[in-house]
């Protein structure tokens, strides 16, 4: 199904199948309410590029048996640092974390994927939005991925003396 809006802001739902397209009437769109939540999760996808992929191990757990939030934050900093170094073509340092939100726990054995995109470049600094998605591995195989954390990290390009240097745009 495709949701389309016209120039007046009216929304239309189109049902698409192998033989064509049909415009659904408002009464028929109530079917959308019955759609499984899983479908909306499958539509979501990570923002940015894959920067880091690793496996959550038992040594990375907290007292509850979940993966320690500090370990997740470390992976985010590594991933963001990779992108920041590529953008600045040189040495960078993390200067701050503007935000970080842990949405769901990560379990031992989950495949942890960090995605990111640069959202702002200044003269010497940049902001990178990051997301952590996991692919749980169960006895029957890998399940659908879902987001567990998002954050914004800020980096500064530095020279060999550790002083801020301009980023070549």
TrEMBL record:
Domain HotDog ACOT-type: start-end pairs: 46-161
Keyword Hydrolase on this protein?
yes
Q: Name one GO cellular component term.
A: cytosol
Name of the protein in question: HotDog ACOT-type domain-containing protein
Recall the taxonomic lineage recorded for the source organism: Bacteria, Pseudomonadati, Pseudomonadota, Gammaproteobacteria, Vibrionales
Q: A GO molecular function for this record? A: long-chain fatty acyl-CoA hydrolase activity
BP term (GO), one: fatty acid catabolic process
| Keywords from the UniProt entry | Hydrolase
- Pfam families in the record: 4HBT
- Source domain of life is Bacteria
The protein's matches in InterPro entries, at most eight in alphabetical order, are given as: Cytosol_ACT, HOTDOG_ACOT, HotDog_dom_sf, Thioestr_dom
Family, similarity comment:
Belongs to the acyl coenzyme A hydrolase family.
PANTHER family, sorted: ACYL COENZYME A THIOESTER HYDROLASE, ACYL-COA THIOESTER HYDROLASE YCIA
């Amino acid at each position: 199904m495709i949701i389309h809006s016209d120039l007046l802001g009216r929304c239309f739902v189109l049902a698409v199948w192998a033989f064509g397209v049909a415009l659904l009437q408002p009464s028929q769109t109530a079917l959308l309410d019955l759609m499984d939540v899983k479908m909306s999760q499958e539509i979501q996808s990570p923002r940015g590029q894959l920067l880091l992929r690793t496996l959550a191990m038992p040594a990375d757990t907290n007292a509850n048996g979940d993966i320690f939030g500090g370990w997740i934050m470390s992976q985010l900093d590594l991933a963001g640092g990779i992108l920041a170094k590529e953008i600045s073509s040189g040495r960078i340092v993390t200067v701050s974390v503007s935000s970080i939100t842990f949405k769901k726990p990560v379990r031992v054995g989950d495949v942890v994927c960090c995605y990111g995109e640069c959202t702002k470049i200044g003269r010497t600094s940049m902001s990178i939005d990051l997301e952590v998605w996991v692919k749980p591995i169960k006895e029957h195989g890998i399940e659908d991925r879902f987001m567990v954390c998002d954050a914004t990290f800020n980096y500064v390009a530095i020279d060999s003396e550790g002083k801020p240097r301009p980023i070549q745009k």
